[in-house]
# Entry
Amino acid sequence: MNRRVTSLVTALHFPPTVRAQDALLREGVSASRIIVTGNTVIDALLQCRRPDYRFSIPALAALDATRRVVLVTLHRRESFGAPMRSVCAALRHISERHPDLTFVLPMHPNPSVREVVLPALGGSPNFLLIEPLDYLDFIHLMARSFLIVTDSGGVQEEAPALDIPVLVTREVTERPEGIEVGAARLVGTDETRIVGTFEELLTDRAAYQKMAAAPNPYGDGRAAERIIAAMLKWTAASAAA
# Structure
């Protein structure tokens, strides 16, 4: 509702994707007031990423460079209880079958998350359960990962910019563009489905590479440039009028 109300008094709209643009057009917004720019979150990610970055968390700094890392984030309310237990069971099953993988899970502070995650995964030798990370540590952990398992919306946008495949532990997502281009897959919270998809990407190099090579529909790191250029053009036209 807030977004719809704001749109009524907005001169220029900067949707991140063509799908978002189409939603505005269906609502009656003039095409002349819409400029698809990408999401500025991708600008920030690419500007902050450093090839020589050193983690501030000792446990991350000590990660074995020869082991593949799987980043896991779980926090959405609709996953609390049985769905989250099912996801954790799937991850534990995978970790037992593949002891060569290191799973890193920054735990959300919500007790409803920790009361499931800690008993389910705390005893697994190749699981690293840590406190929430700051932005720089987190984006570089994403970049370090082989695969990401998440229910986060933001991660679904950021991971494709780093060429990291994403398994989304939800039945629906408000970021459908990533699914459509093949950068992410919806796997829900069913244990069998999660394990099956994970195993496919571990054993089928072509399937993994196809996801990793998918274009990022959420931006190329130049969204802010496009927004500024459009604003300057609009203000100049307004002044001339």
Notes: Residues 123 and 200 are 26 Å apart (CA to CA). The mean pLDDT is 95. The longest strand covers residues 68-73. The chain is about 50% helix and 10% strand.
